[in-house]
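agent: user wants the structure for FAD/NAD(P)-binding domain-containing protein from Arion vulgaris. delegating to structure tool.
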Amino acid sequence: MEVASFLADKATSVSVVDLIQVPFQLTLGDQVGAYMQKLHEEKGVHFHFGTGTKEFIGEGGQLKEVVLSNGTTLAADVCVMGVGVVPATDFLKDSGLSLTSRGFVTVDKHMHTNVPDVYAAGDIVEFPLFTVDNQHVNIQHWQMAHQHGRIAGLSIAGKAQDIHSVPYFWTMQYGKSIRYTGYGPGYDDIVLHGDLNDNKFVAYYTKNDKVVAVASLGWDPIVSQAAELMSNGGSISKDEIRAGPDGWVVRLGTSHN
Ligand SMILES: Cc1cc2nc3c(=O)[nH]c(=O)nc-3n(C[C@H](O)[C@H](O)[C@H](O)COP(=O)(O)OP(=O)(O)OC[C@H]3O[C@@H](n4cnc5c(N)ncnc54)[C@H](O)[C@@H]3O)c2cc1C
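agent: tool returned. relaying tokens verbatim.
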């Protein structure tokens, strides 16, 4: 989507193909995803959802057409594949290191693997995330990899500290920036405040009665404040955010977050 937004005013035409139904559907949900789609469509980007790519047809070493699984053929001279990543940890299979079924290296809160004196950090690990009761998670963000490296280094230097970082990322498209903090997978509801049409909203992703992630656009610094609250060990209840968009902010800076 970031590539599409960059190319929208440069390429003759831009098409986005995805198996899902709405951009960012799994992470941001249908409403915010549809908002992102509209932003792109207003700039002329075309979407093909619920389908994948079947064939790339070229001529003289140059891409000419992309055939989709639904039979549609798109004229194209450039195709950018963004289809996810898998950890390149095959070489560790017989090393004695504990790997998950998806190939991630399991570490504890000090980034220590199950093997003495072996530490791991970054995109390849599953680590205990304190904001979700130390559930082992994989987070592929620069900020988290940076913190992992720091914690692993401190452990190696004999100054062990727990990993205590709240996931945070942002994306900028057409001058509009969505911020996101927390760990949303498994959310069961979304409480939205603001107005998508006015480019100003905050979306709370909840699981049971608790906010597990927050996304915003045009509502700074609410996502940073939520990250700070979570970092301080605080939490936001669903009742609170049903009552209003940001009443919980007053609890920042107090000792009872
Ligand atoms: C297209 C793209 C866009 C992204 N955008 C963002 C963003 O906007 N914001 C954000 O926070 N994050 C973003 N990320 C994620 C971010 O880049 C990663 O979370 C971060 O780089 C992870 O750092 P790392 O050190 O764990 O892994 P990497 O940065 O991938 O570094 C791993 C290094 O290990 C090397 N390596 C691999 N196998 C071996 C081996 N067997 N022996 C020795 N070396 C090896 C690799 O060559 C590589 O240099 C993006 C990622 C991609 C791919």
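agent: one observation worth passing along. The first helix runs from residue 2 to 7.
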